[in-house]
Amino acid sequence: MEVPFVSSGALSRRHYKLVSEVENATSMQAADQFIWAEINNFQRRARTADMTLQDWKEKLIILLYCAMTISTALPAQALDFALPHAVTLAEAGESVSDKRIGYLFCTETMSQDHELRLMLVNTLRKDLQSPEVPRICLALDTLIGSASTDVIPAVQTRLHDLLSHPSLHVRRRALLTFRVLAKHDRGLLQSICGDISKRLHDTYPMVLNAAMAVAVAAIQNDSVDPDIFRPAIEELLMSLAKANDIELAHGPLLSATSALRSIGLDQENLDMVATVFSSAVNTNDRPLVLSTFMLLCTVDPAILLGKDLSPVRDIRDYLTSSEPNDQALFLSCLDAVDPVLWAGTKPETMPLVLEEWEIERVMGFLDSFDPLVRKKTLAILNKIDGNIVSTYYVQSVETMPPDLPLPAREAYVSRLLEVIEMRCDHEGEAYAHAVLDLLRKLSMFSAGVSASTSGPSASNKASVLESVVAAVLEHVRFGDATFRVSCATTFVASIVGYEGESSLMTESKASDGSAGGNTAEPTGMVIAAALGTEFCGQLAMSPASLLRGFSSRLSRCPAGVQDACLLAMLRISAECERVPPDIMQTVQEIAKRAGRHIRRRCTQFVALSDQPAALRDVLQRAKSQSLPDFLEALQSTPIRESSPITSKGTSGDDRSPALTEQPLSESKLRYDAYEAPRPTARIRTRRLSSTSSIHSGVSADRQMSRTISPGQLAVVGQMNEYGGASKMNTHVGQPKIQTAVDDVASRVDLIAFDSPFMSDPPTIASPGADAAHEVDFERIWNTLENASSARGWCEAGLEDIVNRLRGLELPVQTVAEGSPPFLGELKIIVQGAGGEPGNSAILRVRANDSDGCLWRMRCGDASLQIQIKRLLTDA
Prior knowledge:
The chain contains 39 helices and 9 strands. The chain is mainly alpha-helical. Among the domains are: about 1-70; about 125-260, Leucine-rich Repeat Variant, CATH 1.25.10; about 265-385; about 405-540; about 765-875, TATA-Binding Protein, CATH 3.30.310.10. Mean pLDDT is about 80; it is low at about 455-460 and about 650-775.
């Protein structure tokens, strides 16, 4: 944070210091440490120090900042030590500003059953009795924000009196307070019907809007008969339509039309509403056009036809507009109206309103780049005739271009998923069957295209469609409980049956047209793995059958899909008393033929299958039942692993050591070797992960590994693991420090990640070379003690840093992290002109498990120093 104290708006130097420390923290965990330290300090001072109300006002503001800024939610009673002082400030504060802080703190942190709530209610009652309007408004705002049942008897009588208060601000807030309290006592609104009717004739628009909102709430709660308020609101609508100041009447007009949609429109006033609608169209008042159009749609179509009213005819100009807002308005209107009024579904009653070219333009919205426009168009066509949507879907599947690159294919399939969502509505089983059928057809289509060409291209081979996985999981997640379970059951059942019956197995073909064996459809396998992990305890299938289904298809899946399936199997094994031996044998066979990451995952499965207590501990740590959260908990839990499964053909001397999970600890986020660099404010926008991250070691004693994050599960299908090892993606984005909501949102996305697999890196320094360079490195480092020095942060890993330095076309020597001097740091020597130490650059680089590397450099050549610094600071 580079804002000086005088311009920061901070209450004190302490407040400024805390915000600066949090904003400049190098990690999310470090920022949380500063926040917890401040909370604990306040808690100690609350027990020992004697502070004034003004002191506590500042402390409460800082505590509210801590509660809103911390990355994980505070425990329920973490700030209860400050509640007595907040209640005291709300009661005895000298100014409205002081009292507002006390009320706000109580609203945000006090539970409904807290012992101090009675004192808070008493304070609210006193402020409502105050003759000062600001104090009354403050108390009403607090009631609106934290209404409860126990407060109603204490304030009901005074609230009723405030409905007639001289101040419009008090009247408006009193109405809204009644609406909120009615959620706890439905009879409240029935007792103030007369007052609501009076307020419907108020002269102030703000009070009118509040009165109509309360009237609608009363009708929706079945507290009163709609006929009580309908005449008053229709009369109000008529007077507003004739008002001279249209701008002032605009808000109440919208509220009146919206209220009448809930209350119901009297047929006698239909012509008046039609006049308001025509006026809104002529003045291009889009909000009022949509509101009055939807009000007209509540009337029986036969009545509209009898009065020769055709609302669609009046909005045809919006269809031809090039403005996206006009097009969206037109489609929203069509979606709200009965097709009989415009689509010609009953030509003997109402002919087609739109011309042929206008119908074609509506159909053209199916190809819009805006998903909202596409979905509205599908809904409109489905209302007219469901066969139109079905025909469009079949034609789209059959005419998909064969040479689409992967991103374009994902976009194409995502649009087909929108059609499936429309056709299947809330039927989970039908939705799952339709998605599986689509994926199977696409897989067969890709296999046929690959066989017809001389060699499979990147766009034709079976790949995990990231956006499809995300769209399906999101749609399932937002469905109701019945939809979710039935959908998950259908997806997982597709891998439980016999091979020939599985809709996730497709027959691949060789280039000569002969059968090439069955392969598992990768996208469907990832979806099944994710849903199997989340719903395995709710499915009507035995855990053993689920394990056999996944294990039988492991050998036919690409590496990324194998990883997702193994994680799902690990979660499902927690539901088994004992994993069947044939499944263990299958996993061990897979490990012998797999690469390092999958071999490690297989070892993990074998180890945890024999440690039910450790697996239960992982499940308890998981924030939810989803696959990303399970993986996150798995990575953060220390686990005793069994001996590694060696790959086929390796000997005991040259095989790779077992790769074990390492829990994320604070020691990996803080460095004691030298002071951490002071980053700029952009570090607040850098991605932080609670899991282990890419760590490229260069020591021969420490093999390279890359542990995937909770989302990094499945998308290597489109990479190069089919023909060999995949290429590591070293690009690192610049996300932000996550809040609690951001953390939930990020865990939802299963497939926004790079490939977790990488080939063994080229040897940077041989073991024999380490000893040769140890003395030279320390000697050169000490020699350049008085030379120019620099330090900083690099987003790349160790291997990438070395590759960047080699791009200078200068001799580069390295000493591994495990070799002295400076253990734990990669030592790099870049020889300058003439190979003289005085012209060389010497670097010490320490890797961070999640976020890149810290580096220090000494260099005797200024130009070389600038070159290296640019290489390390470029993202």
